[in-house]
């Protein structure tokens, strides 16, 4: 069987060119005589990989000098606790937007460390839209405002940032590198790698340097302190070296394609075509406010729920892999990250049309 | 250039057969149409890998039914904090043996969570031996006794466990699967993968189930609670899937070789030959009490320190990679984990003899 079109929400598809390069040098990286997996993290070879990844990411996102790039272990879910643990010092409160399942998880962890003000929530609208920026309840003395600009499960995405003087901390796990952003508007960005960056096992963090001072705190676990990670170039202990290497290869691939601006156009096209197919159908539908539909994660339900298992079995057989929605919500979900080629989206649309013609009312 | 003999202390050499298998199936695992790196961690394919890894490890170490195997992110250094955070509940104290640099780091992190009793220390002997078990200062009400049976930097290893009713928690990062152990004597074993198990990015934990109850604590970060990890089969969030897959391949390789008993004999031979070469030389020496010399990490110094850089440059050129000692102590160190073939140790000994004949006094 050849390679499938892989719609998994994460760990997600990687560019085939990246996997082929990793495969070619898996036993012997650049003549070093060893795999990247077998190198000391403090070797000149691995250090060159780490520095390359940082330099490429800096170029791709135009990261200003007053930010540090950190590679952190544990997954974004660990960061949900690690962020308040780092930044709640003299502050008593933290502000969170509640726009979906991942916001809610971040809020749950933050409550272990601070008084959480839910500054705005669309839970009562089933998370189908975002709160009004004008009506947010923001505490000017809070440590930060946390937002989740892409809700991977619900399929909601927003680009505009709330107006506030609080440092904005954003979980960009699913959208990093998929669209242009102005890094200078954020206090901190973090993103689990396993969507648009590389394999699971590392979180990309971009932190404004002035905020790091708050986390220079001897009471924190050594490997949790962002200040300590920055001082040690993400190598307090052995980092997940192979995941960082894959990230560097993905960044290289993206630069060769023309960078974030280039892939953003492709992502707009892919999402537009898929939503058009959904909206033009009687079988499929997507509940999210059109202005806030995610370009990366496209959930849809079938008018006749009893067809779901047939849809999943037939799509899988057609080489369209992992289209089931998140176990907490059911339905379907097509995650179409950077590594999903236009042809994959076209094949999905073609399959959906054919399926509807055979099973639709 | 062909593959080197790699003496790195970690990330360490992996079995070539394992790397070749991973290479062959890197783009398409068992006809699934995707790389292991691209699979949902909740897919039937990845679940089968995780269960295979657990079953193989259970067989290899003869793990009793009343233990849970966990795959934890963050590295053993994160566990240094996570362990007291999990187990210090009604207990006020924890006991630690101080037998080297890694013990000392574990103690430093534990102090953030509990009153640490250093039950025995050989710091004054430069960590060249172990404390007398009879003279340990053990608090019967402590939460546990933490030990580091292999000090990777100093090159010290001990096999005998102290007599105590306290649950023994052991950092076996460098020795797991290198020698037979009786798991039932431990409360918890943990080991960073990047020595004898797989690539960096995952820690293997084996925890006695009755101890897990203590960590069923809502105040802990969700991804830190061992109880929560056990309930969720190590998948509270996305685990480092590729590292777990490599671990499964390493376990498979070890089973095919005849298991821990078989590799232990090889490891004894390799270490005996190398120490014999050191002891029989006028140029090289190792300071550790002969009874407690590590089979895995063999540090040695040159009588003439000014030869160190020449030794490192020439050994590297001879395909003997990463022989420098830890940056904190200098000198040389040959790490000869399971994946180091006998031929690698023989090549090193041959090189050392030749070097001595050319540069020795």
Detailed description of the structure:
The structure is a homodimer of 361-residue chains. With 361 residues, chain A is an alpha/beta fold. The first copy, chain A, folds into 2 domains: 16-257, 3-Layer(aba) Sandwich (Aspartate Aminotransferase, domain 2), CATH 3.40.640.10; 258-359, Aspartate Aminotransferase, domain 1 (Alpha-Beta Complex), CATH 3.90.1150.10. Chain A contains 10 helices and 14 strands. The longest helix of chain A has 21 residues, at 259-279. The first copy, chain A, is globular. The model of chain A has no long low-confidence stretch (mean pLDDT 96). At the A-B interface, helix 1, helix 3 and helix 7 of A face helix 1, helix 3 and helix 7 of B.
Tell me briefly what this model is.
Chain A has 361 residues and is an alpha/beta fold. Chain A is built from 10 helices and 14 strands.
DSSP, total strands of chain A: 14
DSSP summary: helix tally of chain A: 10
- The helix/strand order of chain A is EHHEHEHEEEEEEEHHHHEEHEEH
Distance between the termini of chain A: 33 Å
Which spans of chain A of ≥5 residues are poorly predicted at pLDDT below 50? Answer: none
Q: Report the sheet-strand fraction of chain A.
A: 15-25%
Biggest pleated-sheet summary of chain A: 7 strands, mixed
The overall pLDDT average of chain A reads 96
Q: Largest protein interface?
A: A-B, 72 and 72 residues
Count structural domains of chain A. Answer: 2
CATH architecture label name of the largest domain in chain A: 3-Layer(aba) Sandwich
Superfamily (CATH H level) name of the largest domain in chain A? Type I PLP-dependent aspartate aminotransferase-like (Major domain)
Work out the radius of gyration of chain A.
21 Å
The helix fraction of chain A, in percent, is 25-40%
Strand order in space, largest sheet of chain A: 2-10-9-8-5-3-4
CATH topology (level 3) name of the largest domain in chain A: Aspartate Aminotransferase, domain 2
Helix/strand class of chain A: alpha/beta
Q: What is the CATH first-level class name of the largest domain in chain A?
A: Alpha Beta
What best-fitting shape of chain A do the alpha-carbon axes yield?
Answer: globular
Oligomer: homodimer
